[in-house]
Amino acid sequence: MVNEQLPIVTLKIALDENGAVDDLGITSKRFTSEQSLDAVHRLRRCSDAVLVGIGTVVRDDPYVPEESSIAGRERTTVKSRDRSFLEDRSACAIMCKVMRDGYKTVIFHSDSDEVDKRRIQLISELEATNQVSFIPTPTNQHRSLDLTSILGELSNLGVKELMLEGGPATVKRFLQQKLVDRAIVIVAPIKFDQLPVPSLIDHHVLKAAGLALLGEHQDWGKDSVSLWSKAQLQWPSPVISEWP
Question: Does the keyword Transport apply (predicted)?
Answer without folding.
Answer: no
